[in-house]
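INPUT
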Amino acid sequence: MSNCAIVGVNWGDEGKGRMVDLLTSDYDVVVRYQGGGNAGHTVINELGKFALHLLPSGIFRKGVVNVLGNGVALDPENLWNEIEDVRSKGVPITPDNLKISDRASLLLPWHRDLDELEERRLADKKYGSTKQGIAPFYSDKYQKKTVLAGELFYPDEFKAHLRDIAEWKNLTLTSVYGAAPYTEERLSDWAAEYCEKIKPFICDTGEILKEAQKEGKNILFEAQLGSLRDLDYGIYPYTTSSNTTAAYAPIGSGLPSARLDRIIGVVKAYSTCVGEGPFVCEMFGEEAEKLRKEGFEYGAKTGRPRRVGPIDIVATRYGAEVQGTTEIALTKLDVLSYLDKIPVCTSYEIDGKKTDRFPFPAALNAAKPVIGYLDGWKCDISKIRRFEDLPAQAQKYVLYVENAIGCRIKYVSVGAERDSIIIR
Ligand code: GDP
Ligand code: MG
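OUTPUT
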C-alpha cells in the first residue's frame, strides 16, 4: 500500500493533471482535496484533450475510484456542466467511479456574484481572481455559513438552512454591493437544476477511503495550484483561499489518519504565473512573448495569457521545502529547446543584498532577480525517453535544477501527451 500526493511547487499550472493522469495506472483511488472549479488541469490521452476543473484527473482510468474530498469547494452547477462535458467525449462518469464527500461544503450561487462584485470594487487593486467564487466560498465555510453536500439527503433541513443563510447573505448583497437579493424561488430552482443532479454521487467518502486504506489500496492525492498560492505559506494576499500543500491532503481528503509515502512536487522548467501578485523573475517584451508562445501559456480555465519568466530557484526551493517533496517531476523541458542560452533566476537581490531565502510576502516587491545562464541544446527532445539520450546540455540543466533545489528529479516531462516522459 502506498499513499502519494501530487502537488504544485510553483504558482500552479506546472502540469499536475498531466502527472496524475500518467501515474494513476498505479493507484486505485484519486482524491482532490482542496480548491475548486478554478483549477485547470490539462490532460491529453487516448481519449482526447481535456481541461479538468473539479473532476480528479484519475477519471479516465478504468477501475480508478475518484473522490472529491471534504476540502474542495463543491460548485454543483460547474461540476454538473463539467461531468456532462467530459461524458460527451466518451468518458463514463457514474457513482461507481466518482464519489463526492457528504462533508464537502457547497459553493452557493452568490459566491460567484460576490467574487465578481468585490473584484469590481477593488478596481486597479484587484487580486486577479478567476471569479469562480472561491474566496467568498472559503470565507463562508469558515464562518459556517454554507451547507454540506450531505444535507441534500435531509430536504427539509437543507431548505431551511439555505433560507437562513440567504437571509443573512442578502444583507451583504443589497446593502454593501447594491446587488439584487436571492429569492427562495431562485434558490430552489438552483437546487432542483444542479444539486439534484449531483446527489447520486454524494456519499460518506471517508468510509470509502478508510476501507481502501484497510485493504492496502494505493491512494493518490491531487492538489490544485502550487506552494506559492498556499493560503498560509504563499504570497498572501495573492494566494488562493485554501491550502495547496501536501500537509493538507489528509484533512481535505477525508482520511485524516493518512500518511504520505511519496510527495511528488511538480516543477515547470521555467516559471509562469496567472493573475496578480509579486512575480520576481518575470520577463517582459519580446523575450517573454516568445516563451509564452513556445509554452502555449494561456490559462486552461480563463484563457488569460500567463506571466512568464525563467525558472526561479529561490521560489522553487522554498516551494519544494513547503511541500516536503520526496521527488520532483520537471515538466515542459521541451519548451526550452529554442533557446541558445537558458536564463535561470539564481537568487534575489533586496536593497543591494543577495539572498537565497524566499522573502516575507511584503518584501517581495523590492526583490530583484539575479539571472545566470546555462547552455541551451537547440534540438527537439520531445521523442526522447531515456535520460542518457538527452543532449548533454539538457542533462546538465536537469541536474543543475535538482542540485539547486535539493530534491531528486525522478520524472522529466518532454511533452503534453501521457507517454512523453523520461523516468530516472
Ligand atoms: P496543472 O494546472 O498543473 O494541471 O497544469 P495545466 O494543465 O494548467 O498547464 C500545463 C500545460 O502544459 C498544459 O497545457 C499541458 O498540456 C502542458 N504540458 C504538461 N507537461 C508538458 C510538457 O512536458 N511539455 C509540453 N510541451 N507541455 C506540457
Ligand atoms: Mg492549471
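end of record. The longest helix spans residues 155-176.
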